[in-house]
Amino acid sequence: MGSVARSCKTGSGEEGGALRPEAAVRYLGAAATYRVSVAPRIHLAVLSVVLSTHVVAQSGDDLRDRVVTKAGIEHRGRVWSRFSPDEIVVVRGGHRERIARAEVREVHTVGDDLREFFRMRAALRGNKKRAWYLVEWAASRKLPGMARLQALSIVFDDPDHAAAQRFLGNKPGPAKAGKPTGWRWSVAGRPVSFAEFERHHGKWGRELALTGEHFTVRTDAGIRRAVATLFDLERLYLFWEDTFGEGVRMREALAPMPVYVWRSLLQFPALTSKRLPYYDLQRDVAMTYYRPDGKRPEQLFGVAAQAMIYHTFGDVRPQPNPRHACAWAEIGIAQWVEDAFDGPPGEAQPLSEARLSGPAAGAVLAAQPRLKFVVHWHYELFHELSRRVGLRWDTTRALVHFLMSQKPEPKLRPRFMALLVAAFQQGQGDSSSTFDRVMGMKAEQLEVRFRKWLRR
């Protein structure tokens, strides 16, 4: 097994190379009011966190999911469309195999094992003697990302845990006067102390890249923060599946979704002077940062939710000029997800119901924005230099809270899910006629109910 960390040479933009400098979001460049930042040259100093024998997502031999038919035939691969009502699609070696749902007896996926991992992690929290068991369990279930995260969390608490250190590929340092000098991590093949390892990767250009099962976090904020962030993101993915799986006929994200986290707002490649985190659709990267007093990255769940919309709501394919299909829903869902989580970094837990703040609801109620215009707001309006940007964020936040609430309008959530299918899977975007048809009423009628709900 290789070392847990390697610094890679500059190359041509492939893994281990360098990306060319480019505008952070090209599709905003035409608007004169925007001050579009140029993203820094990013050298991929990779923290290798996937067991070499299980780097499967890119090689096409990922066989971790299992579908068993009533006839007893087992199909291995990755289940891409578990929630389709008619068929289950299994991806294997670049090919898609379609199995009629009526013929299926059993489905077991990476997500099922991931859910069990988090259940056991919660049950064993504080039990340091059993923490290593989770590493072995995750490795046996072929969850290499979670096994590495758990091993890293062990060595943070117990640097002398030999099994965890060896699992990470680290080696004991030379003894001095018969006493051990600690474990050695690796930077560009050179053994270094943990403190040196942290210093080396504490600058953008030599940032860490840490991979879980569904996300890759790239950050200069330190490995402890990276581990906590990935634990939170993987927990978010399960919440996402629970919330949207059936409703939008969610597709599995088969490749890790990148999330870039800057340790400081000063280095963050912001779109405007408002310095809001964002999802760069063209580069397919969620971008955020730490505030000086921030416990976790700013709007972490929100920018990750935007990435998941395009990876799990629709069949994402490369496009020369991608556009945000339904910006008001995208931004609103991002904020709703932010309001749905609580807990310390690395131990995020979903609330029983997302909480909308009183000031946000009051601001929307006072401004009374017209929904027939809201549904046509395009993505750039949420990142321009305007005093109304805050109101737009509050409006979409409150609107999605209203649509996702189970009371007093329980029929709105399934209708909203159907609208998301129309927008992101069927390419109907922000069509007014689609909105009226799917929601079962015109925007003006929904607006009356929305205002009544805000007054509650």
How do the helices and strands line up, and which of them pair or pack?
Elements: E1 18-19, E2 22-23, E3 38-39, E4 42-43, E5 65-69, E6 74-79, E7 87-92, E8 95-100, E9 104-108, H1 110-123, H2 131-140, H3 144-157, H4 162-167, E10 171-172, E11 183-187, E12 190-192, H5 194-200, E13 208-211, E14 215-219, H6 223-248, E15 257-262, E16 278-280, E17 285-289, H7 300-312, H8 327-338, E18 341-342, E19 349-350, H9 358-367, H10 371-374, H11 389-404, H12 412-424, H13 432-439, H14 443-454
Parallel strand pairs: 14-15, 15-17
Antiparallel strand pairs: 1-4, 2-3, 5-6, 5-9, 6-7, 7-8, 10-11, 11-12, 13-14, 16-17, 18-19
Supply database-style keywords.
single chain, 456 residues, alpha+beta, 5-stranded antiparallel beta sheet, 5-stranded mixed beta sheet, 36% helix, 16% strand, globular, disordered N terminus
Structure in words:
- It is built from 14 helices and 19 strands.
- It has 456 residues and is an alpha+beta fold.
- The chain has a domain at 65-108.
- It has a 5-stranded antiparallel sheet with strand order 8-7-6-5-9. The protein has a 5-stranded mixed sheet with strand order 13-14-15-17-16, with helices on one face. The protein has a 3-stranded antiparallel sheet with strand order 10-11-12, covered by helices on one side.
- It is globular.
